[in-house]
């Protein structure tokens, strides 16, 4: 805006052209008025509706009826709010509330739900799928059974299989066992016709492949002799089931040993002697995961050590980066300094470089025998930076300082420049010294601006997964712990390791979620308390 | 009244669209008359050869193959997460040591290789066998071996000490290179461990693994002591990471490096020979064999097509040779392996695999890795007392197995 113009926008072009109608339009609700604005709104809401309906459809198709209904409710709410004239505040709040629901409430709620289940390796899915998988896995090809040339046939809409055994054609369906088919025609080793049956072509087989794959034709009336099935519609083998599922009794029976397996409350089939089948399903297990996290000494002992280090790491990270950043900000804020711009640009560099890469680079530089730090800077010293518990902690804090101080430098520079010069001037006139001005004026005013950022920085560092995983992977390991946890592990990397997400152990999403909830509670508590206390700072203003 | 119109319209629209969508679902089965669609997950190296086989298959059958290229590291978690929701592929490429996890979670279906099984290297089929059923079509075998720089050494002796002596005689900076790293590397050091007679798990007579840990005891303690000695002599070094080792070898700083075919790209300027791994403890040094293959999803609606494609198009010599050329790993099909063995590098890796054992794919193996490497690294760096450290590791692994 050019300075010779008055600060308010003069005549808006619309009111210039049609002053009277424009006044009336402004007072009308968009719901009743079909102005261009209404159509823009209509288009936007239609877009939202279209996306929402798509989500509903997908959710419904996936069988997630809860998600579908929540989405329907949200859509109805959206349309009511934006087409009603009475819900004005909601028009502004709704997008925020919707995102809060989707991104915060849902994810926390879902994590909470998983924390009470045994979701993990061996309990990956539903009971139906576990039963299906067990039956698939325990249907074995009868040892040394031949590969029979096979054709898929159909009779009165019922699928059947025909095989060639010793030059004879045998045919049967799901209900009738194999029997010799007279007058069947075999050309070049393929069955081409059987009286009373249609031999299906490859396209028909492809169309009904689920049914064909599920088809079992008994070899004889004796159920124990197994059944023919096919995996490629051209050759068949004799299979027999090792496990049989009885739907009414809800139990698995082994045809080999006769053992009966019934579902237990851990989501597995268990025999009376306590033997379990290898595929289980997801069930609610109550507070088991929390009990494991705190009651099992394998986890609880390292947990408290890790908790302490997590606090030390996040507090020291914030404090050290803040003071280094502040120091440079104050120094470079002095107008007597030459080349301030260049120096500021240089200081931002570590921030501009991806943190991810910085960590890997530092890991290489800290290598004991080949790293830049030891070989060049320290003249070939043999310092085991990442292998010694204390040095590794120091290294983590040092690298975090390098990566983190430019951010603090930026926000402190901004905050310092926003402190009004006349206030400081007034203090000088009143006879305050530099130290006094700093302590009573600059610092409190600065803190009002940056305190919330320090708290969020604390929360970020509390879960600063990248630096630990990239730099030390939590190592060196605790000498006395029996789980893969180390001296530089913070809570989030410990969760990652002991829940098997890093591939080092069997996966246990339930335990991981339970620990995540604990971390969430800690961070939330600390943040709430800190934000309360920053309010007292604001009273200074 | 005015307000209810848009609401009703939206609901009506939603219902109409939902019914449409269920119609299209139903009709997609009908439209398969022209051919079904197979979805296959592959990684970058495997994409081209699988695509070639898929093209042949499409031409011969009229079915469509949809290749989804994924980052190899993402395949296992995505497969585990998506198959139960019905979203996953029909076929995915994968390693044999995933088998325990995939079967425990019930996401793979056995495939019947039938008579074709005899055409594969026995170790490849064994690796994919769990409880008597085969779960994937194997296509490649990989194992580590001694990669030798022929300009610096003319042979690899049969024992570790002799090899180190020859390495020192070569006058290079390192007598021998093996990656260790701060978190250790149980996989790379495994041949030396087996040469002391301390395999991870005991094996049944038929070669399958039991869940009984066998890495402890006197044999294990001897190996731990050996690790400590090599660490003290600086032959093994925890600061020797993969990158540093490969770079040092490429720069001609050592005649020997212990590694696999994945390193070869970095050594294109060198004249190489591949030799079996020398024994450190007296018994044969047995590296792990990794077998790669194609798994079929337990929830696949295209079981027949998948089995047909794998057994009739991916199990051919051409397809397996093409996969070899893309990834340098020895083909799992014997005929294809014979063909590529005219290349001395491929023949060398194959010869080195004579003593190899399949990497355990039983679920218990998952509890081993994170204790194993770190303990080795601790012993090599001198931070951990060898025998006590090794015994504690066995106890911890047993504890983790019992707890899971």
Automatic annotation (TrEMBL), chain A:
The keyword Transmembrane applies. Keywords: Cell membrane, Membrane, Sugar transport, Transmembrane, Transmembrane helix, Transport. SUPFAM superfamilies: MalF N-terminal region-like, MetI-like. Residues 307-530 form the ABC transmembrane type-1 domain. It comes from Sanguibacter antarcticus. Gene3D superfamilies: D-maltodextrin-binding protein, MBP, MalF N-terminal region-like, MetI-like. It is a multi-pass membrane protein. This is Maltose/maltodextrin transport system permease protein. GO terms for biological process: maltodextrin transmembrane transport. InterPro entries: MalF_N, MalF_P2_sf, MetI-like, MetI-like_sf, TM_PBP2_N. One of its GO terms (cellular component) is maltose transport complex. Its main location: membrane. Part of the ABC transporter complex MalEFGK involved in maltose/maltodextrin import. Probably responsible for the translocation of the substrate across the membrane. The keyword Transmembrane helix applies. GO terms for molecular function: ABC-type maltose transporter activity. Belongs to the binding-protein-dependent transport system permease family. MalFG subfamily. It is found in: Cell membrane. The chain crosses the membrane at residues 38-60, 66-84, 96-116, 306-332, 344-362, 394-416, 437-460, 509-531. The lineage of its organism: Bacteria, Bacillati, Actinomycetota, Actinomycetes, Micrococcales.
TrEMBL record, chain B:
Pfam families: SBP_bac_8. Residues 1-26 form the signal peptide. InterPro entries: Maltose/Cyclodextrin-bd (IPR006060), SBP (IPR006059). Coiled coil: none annotated. Keywords: Signal, Sugar transport, Transport. GO terms for biological process: maltodextrin transmembrane transport; maltose transport. GO terms for molecular function: carbohydrate transmembrane transporter activity; maltose binding. One of its GO terms (cellular component) is ATP-binding cassette (ABC) transporter complex, substrate-binding subunit-containing. Belongs to the bacterial solute-binding protein 1 family. This is Carbohydrate ABC transporter substrate-binding protein (CUT1 family). It comes from Sanguibacter antarcticus.
């Amino acid at each position: 805006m050019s300075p010779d113009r008055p600060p308010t926008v003069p005549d808006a072009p619309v009111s210039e052209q049609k002053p009277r109608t424009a006044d009336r339009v402004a007072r009308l609700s968009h719901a009743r008025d079909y102005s261009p604005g209404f159509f823009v709104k209509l288009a936007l809401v239609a877009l939202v509706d279209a996306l929402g309906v798509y989500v509903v459809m997908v959710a419904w198709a996936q069988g997630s009826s809860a998600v579908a209904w929540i989405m329907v409710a949200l859509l109805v709410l959206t349309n009511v709010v934006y087409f009603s004239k009475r819900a004005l505040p909601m028009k502004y709040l709704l997008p925020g509330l919707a995102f809060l629901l989707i991104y915060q409430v849902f994810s926390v709620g879902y994590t909470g739900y998983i924390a009470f289940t045994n979701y993990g390796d061996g309990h990956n899915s539903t009971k139906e799928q576990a039963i299906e998988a067990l039956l698939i896995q325990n249907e074995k090809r009868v040892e040394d059974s031949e590969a029979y040339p096979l054709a898929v046939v159909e009779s009165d809409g019922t699928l059947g299989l025909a095989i060639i055994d010793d030059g004879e054609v045998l045919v049967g369906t799901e209900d009738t066992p194999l029997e010799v088919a007279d007058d069947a025609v075999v050309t070049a080793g393929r069955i081409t016709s059987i009286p009373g049956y249609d031999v299906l072509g490859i396209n028909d087989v492809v169309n009904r492949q689920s049914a064909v794959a599920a088809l079992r034709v008994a070899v004889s009336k004796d159920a124990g002799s197994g059944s023919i099935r096919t995996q490629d519609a051209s050759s068949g083998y004799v299979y027999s089931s090792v496990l049989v599922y009885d739907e009414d009794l809800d139990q698995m029976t082994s045809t080999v040993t006769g053992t009966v397996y019934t579902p237990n409350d851990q989501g597995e089939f268990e025999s009376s002697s306590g033997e379990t089948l290898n595929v289980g399903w997801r069930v609610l297990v109550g507070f088991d995961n929390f009990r494991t996290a705190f009651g099992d000494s394998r986890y609880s002992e390292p947990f408290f050590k890790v908790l302490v280090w997590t606090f030390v790491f996040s507090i020291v990270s914030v404090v050290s980066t803040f003071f280094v950043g502040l120091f440079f900000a104050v120094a470079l804020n002095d107008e007597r300094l030459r080349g301030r711009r260049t120096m500021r640009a240089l200081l931002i560099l570590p921030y501009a470089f991806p943190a991810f890469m910085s960590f890997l680079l530092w890991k290489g530089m800290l290598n004991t025998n080949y790293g830049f730090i030891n070989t060049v800077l320290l003249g070939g010293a043999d310092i085991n930076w990442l292998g010694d518990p204390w040095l590794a902690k120091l290294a983590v804090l040092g690298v975090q300082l390098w990566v983190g101080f430019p951010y603090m430098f930026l926000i402190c520079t901004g905050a310092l420049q926003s402190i009004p010069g006349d206030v400081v001037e007034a203090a000088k006139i009143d006879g305050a010294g530099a130290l006094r001005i700093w302590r009573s004026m600059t610092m409190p005013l600065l803190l009002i601006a940056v305190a919330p950022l320090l708290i969020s920085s604390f929360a970020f560092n509390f879960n600063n997964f990248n630096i630990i995983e990239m730099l030390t992977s939590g190592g060196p390991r605790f000498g006395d712990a029996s789980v893969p946890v180390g001296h530089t592990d913070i809570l989030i990397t410990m969760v990652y390791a002991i829940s098997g997400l890093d591939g080092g152990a069997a996966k246990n999403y339930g335990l991981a979620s339970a620990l995540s909830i604990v971390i969430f509670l800690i961070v939330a508590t600390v943040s709430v308390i800190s934000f309360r206390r920053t309010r007292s700072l604001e009273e200074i203003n | 009244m005015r307000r209810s119109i848009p609401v009703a319209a939206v609901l009506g629209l939603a219902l109409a669209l939902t019914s449409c969508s269920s119609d299209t679902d139903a009709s997609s089965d009908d439209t398969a008359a022209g051919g079904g669609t197979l979805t296959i997950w592959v990684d970058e190296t495997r994409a081209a050869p699988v695509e070639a086989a898929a093209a042949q298959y499409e031409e011969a059958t009229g079915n469509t193959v949809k290749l989804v290229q994924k980052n190899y590291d993402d395949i296992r978690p995505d497969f585990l997460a998506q198959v139960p929701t019905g979203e996953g592929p029909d076929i995915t490429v994968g390693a044999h040591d995933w088998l325990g996890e995939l079967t425990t979670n019930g996401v793979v279906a056995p495939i019947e290789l039938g008579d074709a099984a005899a055409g594969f290297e026995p170790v490849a089929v064994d690796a994919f066998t769990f409880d008597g059923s085969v779960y994937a079509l194997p296509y490649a075998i990989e194992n580590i071996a001694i990669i030798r720089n022929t300009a610096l050494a003319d042979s690899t002796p049969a024992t570790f000490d002799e090899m180190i002596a020859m390495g020192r005689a070569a006058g290079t900076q390192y007598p021998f290179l093996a990656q260790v790293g701060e978190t250790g590397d149980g996989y790379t050091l495994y041949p030396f461990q087996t040469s002391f007679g301390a395999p991870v798990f005991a094996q049944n007579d038929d070669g399958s693994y039991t869940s009984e840990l066998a890495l402890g005891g006197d044999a294990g303690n001897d190996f731990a002591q050996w690790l400590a000695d090599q660490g003290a002599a600086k032959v093994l070094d925890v600061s020797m990471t993969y990158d540093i080792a490969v770079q040092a070898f490429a720069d001609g700083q050592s005649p020997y490096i212990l590694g696999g075919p994945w390193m070869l790209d970095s050594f294109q300027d060198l004249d190489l020979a591949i030799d079996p791994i020398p024994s450190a403890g007296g018994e044969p040094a047995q590296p792990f064999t990794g077998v790669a293959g194609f798994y079929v999803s337990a929830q696949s609606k295209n079981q027949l097509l998948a089995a047909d494609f794998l057994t009739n198009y991916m199990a051919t010599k051409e397809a397996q040779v093409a996969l070899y050329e893309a990834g340098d790993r020895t083909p799992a099909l014997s005929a294809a392996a014979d063909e590529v063995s005219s290349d001395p590098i491929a023949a060398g890796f194959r010869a080195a695999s004579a003593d190899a054992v399949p990497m355990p794919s039983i679920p218990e193996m998952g509890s081993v890795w994170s204790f194993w490497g770190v303990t080795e690294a601790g012993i090599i760096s001198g931070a951990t007392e060898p025998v006590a450290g090794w015994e504690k590791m066995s106890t911890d692994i047993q504890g983790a197995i019992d707890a899971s």
